[in-house]
Amino acid sequence: MKISESGVRYVADLANLKLTDSEIARLAKDMDEILTHMDALSELDTSTVEPMAQVLYQSEETATLRRDEIIPPIGNQAALANAPLAGAGYYKVPKVIER
Amino acid sequence: MNVESLTIEQVQTGLAARQFSAVELAQSALKFAQAENPKTNAYLHFCPERALAAAERVDQKLAAGEKAGALAGVPLAVKDVIVTEGVRTTCGSRLLEHYVPPYNATAVTRLEQAGAVVIGKTNCDEFAMGSSNENSAFGPVRNPAALDRVPGGSSGGSAAAVAQGTAVVALGSDTGGSVRQPASFCGVVGVTPTYGRVSRYGLVAFASSLDHIGPLGRTVRDAALLLETMAGRDDCDATSAFAPVPRYTAQLDGEVSGTRIGLPREYFEGLASESGDRIHRAIEVLKKLGCEVRDISLPATKYAVPCYYIIATAEASSNLARYDGVRYTTRASDETLSGMYRGTRGEGFGAECKRRIMLGTYVLSHGYYDAYYLKAQKVRALIAEDFRRAFTEVDAIVAPVSPSPAFKIGEKIDDPLEMYLSDIYTITGDLAGIPCMSVPCGKTSEGLPVGMQILTRHFDETGMFRLADAFEKAGGFAGSN
Q1: pLDDT tens, B162-206?
Q2: What's the ipTM?
Q3: Measured distance CA(B286)–CA(B453) in Å, rounded
């Protein structure tokens, strides 16, 4: 078995996901099956292969740098327009630090 | 005017001859799309105000004798993972049900500057994760060719809209086949350009090393025109390529004699018999056009599904971390910050997104990174190398798009691995970053569309479109039944 229900709970904790008991049972089954299938990769000898992180094309080192010009940002009001809770020009969240 | 079958060229001719105005066309397209939508659920919402304002601008330009753009008045549907300023963009997710973006995607800006008229936002799998459109929080899309079947995914709404005739062209996004597979299931043309060919600024990120914006249309020319209008470097997307954009549509002369085409044998194993038969008939058409066809091998193909689902889920788990209840409209109430994050994500994401976040978090986690993520990146290099080697011998690769035609709604939804395995023929193109497209090549005896896939070298969209266009002109579509 690749992953147990307690393993699923641990990963859910890393991923900041609240899951129900039935979701955890279902994920343990699905992830086990999918991760077992993924093990097929271990058949391949890749000891001399460089990992490919991106589809890259040759270009000048500085090609992706734009000119150093000031571009007006979208502004505080527009940026906060989709906030579930905002106030005084900031996003508001539950209290993190105890005084 | 018959909105259902219009091409971009016919729209331009009709406007020039004053057969209809852009406003009249927009009104009738909106009316038709709204009336048809209950059948397929292809659109999540319409944007009549934006559409009529755009059409009005086109009419004013035409009245003043000015050029109104290559896409003047053309009704366009946009997948709801591509942001539109002031028009809701939900990504098919409850989490973003009320999200109204403060800016436009570059692709949308460029198409609108060329006169396109965005009429609505199309349904899709949640955050573009799925192969059937059943993962939308707002209900599945039904395939216009057979209403009890899926339209494919994740750009199922865009493919269905174009097939149904409620839009002339549409935008989709492709990470592992999400434009080509629904195009093949619905019987339309769908294109995944070279990685970096189209700016992803404003495409809500799923897996950044694989994400593409791609066009869908009823003809190869329409898809090519859409691509040449939106492609090209954009300073807002550092991964967008500097390579000049050719005028693809100026080179569709039907002459493809001598083109060397490779048929990868790994792509014809395990293919449904009728789909295989339609592809083989299509290959006969290409031979008649003078193409030289030969068998080739892409030996790493059998590792593509695990490779893709490791990389895509890893990147997705990272990209979706931003939906934590702080910035994007939806928040679960909890006294603690951590409880708020967890609750928002637990309540907001659907089952497939959760599965992928979990898989991605697992393969990136301590102790598993080398065995899964790093290994998959190395296998990705082997898959890309297969294509590089093949393209030293052939100019194009022809293959199926999907192992079977459109399946029934509900048929595969309870078996995620089975669903992932059905992506085998499309994910390789995304992993290698090469251009690829689906072009209709007939229907099964049940009337289900089948698509043929064409893949070419990096930035050789021109060769890909020339081949697809020659096939279309040679009556490739007519291979029905």
Answers
A1: 999 999 999 999 999 999 999 999 999 999 999 999 999 999 999
A2: 0.94
A3: 13
> Is A91 in Cβ contact with B327 (below 8 Å)?
yes
Helices (H) and strands (E) in chain A, counts: 3, 2
B359 and A35: CB-CB below 8 Å?
A: yes
Q: Is-contact B152 B131, C-beta < 8 A?
A: yes
A17 contacts in chain B (CB < 8 Å): 342, 345-346, 349, 354, 357-358
Would you say B103 and B202 are in contact if contact means Cβ atoms under 8 Å apart?
A: yes
- pLDDT for res A67: 83
- CB-CB neighbours of B418 under 10 Å: 13
CB contact under 8 A, B209 and A94: no
| Region A6-17 average pLDDT | 98
Average pLDDT over chain A reads: 92
Q: Please state whether beta strands B169-174 and B75-79 pair in parallel, antiparallel, or not at all (unpaired).
A: parallel
Interface of A with B in 36-95 (CB under 8 A): 37-42, 44, 46, 49-55, 57, 59, 63-64, 66, 74, 78-79, 81-85, 91, 93-95
Mutation site, A3, A22, A33, A38, interface B, largest B CB count within 10 A: A38
Alpha-helical regions (H) of A1-87:
5-14, 21-38, 76-80
Distance CA B110, CA B129 (A): 26
pLDDT band at residue A96 using 50, 70 and 90 as cut-offs = confident
Lookup: tokens for B36: 């048809």
The B residues from 341 to 370 touching A (CB cutoff 8 Å) are: 341-343, 345-347, 349, 351, 354-355, 357-359, 361-363, 365
3-state helix, strand, coil in chain A (%, to 5): 40, 5, 60
By C-alpha distance, which of B447, B401, B429, B420 is closest to B180? Answer: B401
* B299 part of contact set with chain A, CB < 8 Å: no
- pTM of full prediction above 0.95: yes
Q: How many other CB atoms sit within 10 Å of the CB of residue B317?
A: 25
Task: Give every residue of chain B whose pLDDT is below 50, as ranges.
Answer: 478-481
Does residue B79 have an active-site annotation? yes
B154 is catalytic: yes
